[in-house]
Amino acid sequence: MVNCPACQKPVYFAERKTSLGKDWHSFCLKCAHCKKTLNPGAHAEHEGKPYCNTPCYGALFGPGGYGRGGTQSFKYDQHAK
User: Which of 19, 46, 53, 75 has the highest CB neighbour number within 10 Å of its CB?
Assistant: First the structure.
């Protein structure tokens, strides 16, 4: 049996979500920044960690912040927790 990469507990077949080449509990597959629950295949990945596409991934790893100005511009301080 495979362990969940987030909580290290066994993942049973009926409760597993496969994403990033690993099996997760559905409630453990969350954005590494904002902790929003994610769906397999509907999120981004950076250094093996899942991120929601909007706004976290674009703001943290996009060119100068997601939206690059205007009302949809997001920029997170990468060193803040």
Answer: 19
Which residue has tokens 């902790």? 35
Task: List for the chain the helix, strand, coil content (%; round to 5).
Answer: 15, 25, 60
Closest CA to 55 of 69, 72, 38: 72
Tens of pLDDT, residues 46-59: 998 999 988 888 88
**pLDDT value, residue 65:** 46
Amino acid, single-letter form, for residue 40: P
Alpha helices (H) in the chain, listed in sequence order: 58-61
pTM of the model: 0.73
Q: Specify whether the CB–CB gap between 11 and 40 falls below 8 A.
A: no
Residue type, 1: M
Q: What are the φ/ψ torsions at residue 39 (nearest 5 degrees)?
A: -105, 145
